[in-house]
Amino acid sequence: MSSGIERWRIWVFALGTLALIGVAVGYAVYSAHKPAAASSSATAVAKTLPLTSAGAPRVLYVDAGIGPDQGRLAEESQADPGASPTLGAIQCERSYSAGGTLLCLRLAGAALTTSLYAQVYTSAAPSAQPVHAVALTGTPSRARVSADGKLVAWTVFVSGDSYNGPNFSTRTGILDLRTGTLIDSLESFDAYVDGQRYRAVDINYWGVTFAADDRTFYATMGSKGHTWLMRGDLVIHQLNSVVENAECPSLSPDGTRVVFKKRVGTSISAPWRFYVLDLATGKETALAETRSVDDQAAWLDDDTVMYAIPHTDGTGYDIWKVPADGTGSPALMIRDGSSPSVID
User: Fold this and answer.
1) Residue 195: left if φ>0, alpha if ψ -120 to 50, beta else—which one?
2) Could you tell me which residues come within 8 angstroms of residue 208 by beta carbon, excluding any fewer than 6 positions away?
3) pLDDT tens, position by position, 193-202
4) SS (H, E, C) the chain
5) Taking the model in full, what pTM does it have?
6) Tell me: the pLDDT tens digits for 175-198?
7) Do residues 120 and 96 touch, judged by C-beta distance below 8 A?
8) Edge-to-edge strands of the sheet including 182-183?
9) Could you tell me the pLDDT band of residue 50, with boundaries at 50, 70 and 90?
10) pLDDT value at 161 more than 60
């Protein structure tokens, strides 16, 4: 997603990057006590945000409004939609939570020494510290956690800040929390398109989503002006094409469908529409959301997907939802929010 506020964040990050010229590009795994957790000195009192729920689904998201709480994690119960959210202390650019694990892509440090980290938490208490922290190079874009909380994935822009254009480069990594194994880039995997080995110098991957077996995952591969939904295998380090013209996939809770962005036009301002792919039949269904959305949608439940849409004045985002079967119409779900995920 691109907006005025995100460009401002990118500019701040760029200033920090200038101070780090000469430092090797890539990933480095840091000990769990670095960097420190976010300060709880913001206007609203920080509270512990539960990462599991035995009752009605709750949605964890990043506060995306203009104000002192911008970037803080917040939580809202779907049993009482519209109620005041509970605010936590942890701050993220992108986040996702599942299986008691929280992944937070976060800029940390002073203005001229800002660094980006993929931080993993198993608690969202105000005093919580990350149990894993991976230093990244780039601008935060996508974050995902497997349903059981054992795998986390992220995508950063190495160059550019939007998927709508030819001049961007991404890097996507996966961390296995059980073993500590880090895949710093999916570009190390072997790719196959229509059964044939695919090689190109401009391959980019983005938008990982995990299957329940902790082996299979889906992601976007982009190359030479085309995109593919790819099915990946973490054991044999291989990716195989599923369908062309699919970006930012998200696998349904029951594992049978994938919601994704499909390019339906050449307009720079509105190129995409959400579709749902039935993995068994190959049938694609256009969703009732007709606005072009640059987000990796998430599933609220087996019947509904949710996503963030920028304000028309570029000051933030709201979270919307729409039925996953093509019926109904979009509905505003949470004001001033982005990066939604279900705490279940």
Assistant:
1) left
2) 142, 144, 153, 155, 172, 174, 186, 217, 218, 219, 232
3) 999 999 999 9
4) CCCHHHHHHHHHHHHHHHCCCCCCCCCEEECCCCCCCCCCCCCCCCCCECCCCCCCCEEEEEECCCCCCCCEEEEEECCCCCCCCEEEEEECCEEEEECCEEEEEEEECCHHHCEEEEEEECCECCCCCCCEEEEECCEEEEEEECCCCCEEEEEEEEECCCCCCCCCEEEEEEEECCCCCEECCHHHCEEEECCEEECCCCCEEEEEEECCCCCEEEEEEEECCEEEEEEEECCCCEEEEEEECCEEEEECCCCCEEEEEEECCCCCCCCEEEEEEECCCCCEEECCCCCCCCCCCEEEECCEEEEEEECCCCCCEEEEEEECCCCCCCEEEECCEEEEEEEC
5) 0.85
6) 999 999 999 999 999 999 999 999
7) no
8) 139-145, 151-159, 169-176, 182-183
9) confident
10) no
